[in-house]
Specification:
mainly alpha; 4 helices; elongated
């Protein structure tokens, strides 16, 4: 009882680390059926508002969707640049 509580806490943290939440996989029919990134985002928000997703799951899905949107944007820009370069070759 009169021991070093800081040392005891450090030892307990090593032996019993804090629990981390683990989200279960989810399947959202509305997300699968959505055709656009905007409608997919709407499906995520609706699922979170309806209690089908935890806030943590909704944030993770939105971040994934943001990454997908960036990849689509890069693909589109790459395609446009290639088309412009191809068009400039024909002009020469």
């Amino acid at each position: 009882m009169a021991g070093d509580m800081t040392a005891a806490r450090l030892m307990l943290d090593r032996v019993l680390p804090p629990l981390k939440s683990v989200d279960a996989p989810v399947a959202l029919a509305a997300m699968s059926a959505a055709q656009t990134l905007t409608s997919k985002a709407d499906a995520i928000v609706a699922a979170a508002a309806g209690g089908e997703l935890t806030p943590t799951q909704a944030v993770a899905l939105m971040q994934t969707l943001t990454g997908l949107a960036r990849a689509v944007e890069v693909d589109e820009l790459t395609r446009r640049v290639a088309a412009l370069e191809e068009g400039s070759r024909h002009d020469d």
